[in-house]
Amino acid sequence: MAAAIAGLVGVVDYVTGSELSLGLLYLIAVAIAAWRVGRSAGIALAILCAAIWFTADRAGAHQYTHPFIPYWNALIRLGFFAVVAGLLSALRQALSRELAAARVDSVTGAANRRCFLERLEEELERCKRYDRPLTLAYIDLDHFKQVNDHLGHAAGDRVLSVVAATLAGRMRKTDTVARFGGDEFAVLLPETGGAAAESAIGAARDELLERMGDYGWPVTFSIGAVTSSGNVGVEALIHQADELMYRVKREGKNRILYAESSG
Question: Could you tell me what percentage of the chain is helix, strand and coil, using 3-state DSSP and rounding each to the nearest 5?
């Protein structure tokens, strides 16, 4: 598309001659390539636009006081276009990084609460549309405060990172692992309910306990898991899973409670 715009501008440039400057229109083509594709495409369009502009200028038989002037002008235009392409592609990359960072927990690298809620809302809508279940697991780290108090906050952050990495490694690519804040995590398993959900969450907890033992950390896991067919909203489903998790905490910790969501 950007190349087509550059070619069209070149034709107009040739027809109108040197009296009308179309430099901004060439710049639009360069900007489109740099923003949509990247730096390399932007530089390639910068070269193309400079060449088209030079060709249109020479074909128009514009007279200069020195034969080197058109070449110098082409070089300056190329430099200007290339700088714009580089700046725009760098800006696009910076914005992409910022958008990604806004959805990721800075300590663990897992999804953050905002990202998880967006994904959960999407999956609940899919549940309603296709009549398929999903399961939400809410996980609290038992005795996490002991790690912070006795080993320091750096060790606490290490625990959180290991938990996130273990969950991510155990779950499918279609699942979402998020840190909700503090020592609480949530896991979303789309199109998963019943025995499949219990098996996946149980296996994840077993591996988490094994990893905690490897490091000598006294951390265990209280988990509430709710399976839904889309009959409740995001906040209601999270509340139900949260309530199950707190019931586990009250009744002795370190186990999993499963339930079907209630409307």
Answer: 65, 15, 20
Instruction: Label each residue of 206-247 as H, E or C.
Output: HHHHHHHHHHCCCCEEEEEEEEECCCCCHHHHHHHHHHHHHH
Residues 60 and 161 in one domain: no
pLDDT, tens digit (0-9, with 9 covering 90-100), for 145-158:
999 998 999 999 99
Q: What is the pLDDT of residues 85-100, one digit of tens each?
A: 888 888 888 777 777 6
User: What mean pLDDT do residues 243-249 have?
Assistant: 95
Closest CA to 125 of 232, 261, 241, 11: 232
Asked if 125 and 229 count as a contact pair (C-beta separation under 8 A), the reply is no
Q: Express each pLDDT in 214-242 by its tens digit.
A: 999 999 999 999 999 878 899 999 999 99
Statement to judge: residues 154 and 242 lie in one domain: yes
* Closest among 242, 215, 238, 237 to 160, alpha carbons compared: 215
| CATH number of the domain bearing residue 174 | 3.30.70.270
Predicted confidence band of residue 22 (pLDDT cuts 50, 70, 90): low
Strand partners, 223: 139, 256
Q: Catalytic residue numbers?
A: 183
